[in-house]
Every structure is written in C-alpha cells, then in structure tokens.
Amino acid sequence: MPQSKVRILTSAFLVFTASLAISPRWVVAQLSTLPPREKEALVHLDHSPRWEEWARVREAKETLNVWMVFPEREDDAPVVIVLHDKSGLTDWVCAVADQLAAEGFIAIVPDLLSGKAPGGYGSIAMGTETAAKLVASLSLDEVNRRLDAVVGHTGSLKQRSVRAGIKPHNQVVPAPSGKIGVVGFGWGGAVSFQYAAAQPGLSVAVAYDGALPAASVLANLQAPVLGLYGGNDASVNGTIRDAEAELKKLGKQYEKEIYEGADHGFLRRPAGGGANEKASQQAWMRTVQFLKQHLEP
User: Fold this and answer.
1) Among 24, 167, 220, 240, which residue's CB has the most CB atoms within a 10 Å radius?
2) Using one digit for the tens of pLDDT, what is the confidence trace for 103-131?
C-alpha cells in the first residue's frame, strides 16, 4: 500500500477513535510495530533511519559503554533505559531500543558488562556463556552505581544537528525531556524492578520475564511498574504472589500480565508464530502504552 494511503487511513482512524473518546495513547499502542525477532535484529539495525551512537560514561573509576538511539522528533523526548538479559548487550536488545526510538523515546542501552572482558572490553568480546557467568557475578550495588551513572549522563545530552544516512542529510537529535523510564528483559527485567525502588528519579519501569525483588526492597518503590511474563516461566512466576501481596499492602502501583503458553524470553519469538508471537503482540502494545502514559505529557 502506498505510504500516502497509509497516512490517510491512519488519520481517518484517529478521527474515528477520537469521536468515540478513545485515548490517542491507546491508538498509538495499537499501531505500534513489534521489535524484530532475534535472527532479524542486525538487518533491522542496518536499515534503521534513526541516529545511533556509542558513548562512554564514567562511573567511579570505571568507564561504561552505552549505545544510544534517538527518535525522529525535534521536541524534547523522554528517555528509556533498556536493560539487557544475561546474554549481555546484543544486536537484539539494541534492535528493541531502536523500536522504542521509533515510538518517540531516546533509548539508551548500557553494557553492564563493560570492562569485564580481557583488555577492558565488554559484551562484544565474549560469548553468551561467559556473559551469563559474569552477569551472575555482578553485585546489586555495582549495577545500581552503573545505572545511576547512565541516569546522570542523560543530563548532558543536548539538542543538536547531525549528518545521517547513506545520502547524508541534516537531522535534529532531540534533548531529553527530563522524564526517565526503564525496560528490562530476563535478568534485566529483575534489575528494572529493583532499580525502580532504588532510583527515585525514575517515572516508570517495565519488567519482562524478571523475578520480583524481595519484600524488603519494595517499600522504597515510587514509580509504577508493569510486569510481563510467559505462562510457562514457572521459576519467575513463582516470585509474583508474595511480592504482589506486599505491593498491594504498601499501596504501590503494579500491573502484570501473564501470557498463557508463552515461554521465558517470548519477545525474542523464534519464527513459527504460536503463543510467543501472540504474547509479543499483546505485551509490546502494553509496553508502549504504559511508557507513553507515564513519560509523555
């Protein structure tokens, strides 16, 4: 379908839903495009029209490598910090961040394994098995310090003009709006939940497939949290009941969805459809909707 027709049909749909008093944020969520499957991530990144760059962020005596992708908008944009799973920083998690940028967010992916490989390298210099072992060795305090450094780095980002594309053209990179959220997957999902309790500057957190923190951590939670889980993920889902009861007792905002038949890491969804594909469609719409609800004006 020609792009002009897509715009016409989308505009008509927005007008129609407005007449029914349906939230524009809900409409945007329905029109959201899923991140690519794991095997399609590199091709997705190669064809992205958005401005991407690496940055080095100082944390105490160490340097943290972060990958950033910016939305195609000129007004200030909210920031979403994207937390990798036990595999470390991969093409797939960068492609997820790129899709968040397509939704209007400045997406930042910190390599939380920065400096852990020989020679001071990070995830890029290790296989997934080594990454998983090193992720398991990270202390909560170290992870929080590194994430605090990323939050601090967002204050240095400014609106600027860059040269982008195969046929270079000027593109405006937006400045942060001041609102920051976090989205994590697997191990990063667990981190996103606990970091929301540790960092009062966060406005929202989304946790995919992550075990919930201990009850003692939850009292400091201020940001609303959305948890998204596969129905077949028994080890993670076994942590929900007690934490959810504590969150309810404390009056904290926590929403969850458990997708029947879906596996741990369902958003990576191998080809073939099924429960993981269905869960991905529903979870991604909820993710975009939840982030826009709490990060956009």
Assistant:
1) 240
2) 999 999 999 999 999 888 999 999 999 99
* Separation CA 111–CA 118 (nearest Å): 15
The answer to whether 230 and 264 have CB atoms below 8 angstroms apart is yes
DSSP the chain: --HHHHHHHHHHHHHHHHHTT--HHHHHHHTPPPPPPGGGHHHHHHT--S-EEEEEEEETTEEEEEEEE--S-SS-EEEEEEE--TT-S-HHHHHHHHHHHHTT-EEEEE-TTTT-SGGG--GGGS-HHHHHHHHHH--HHHHHHHHHHHHHHHTT---EEEEETTTTEEEEEPPEEEEEEEEEETHHHHHHHHHHHH-TT--EEEEESPPPPPHHHHTT--S-EEEEEETT-HHHHTTHHHHHHHHHHHT--EEEEEETTPPTTGGG--SS-SHHHHHHHHHHHHHHHHHHHHH--
End-to-end CA distance of the chain: 33
Residues across the chain? 297
And the tokens for 161?
């003009």
Give pLDDT tens digits for 11-59. 343 333 444 444 444 444 445 799 999 999 999 999 999 999 999 999 8
Domains of the chain by range and CATH? 1-31 (no CATH), 33-295 (3.40.50.1820)
- Give the C-alpha distances (Å, rounded to integers) separating 296 from 8, 89, 181, 184: 25, 27, 11, 19
- Between CA 20 and CA 161 the distance in angstroms is 40
Tokens of 91: 């093409």
Output the CA–CA distances (angstroms, integers) from residue 194 to 95, 200, 288, in the order listed.
24, 11, 21
CA distance 6 to 12: 10
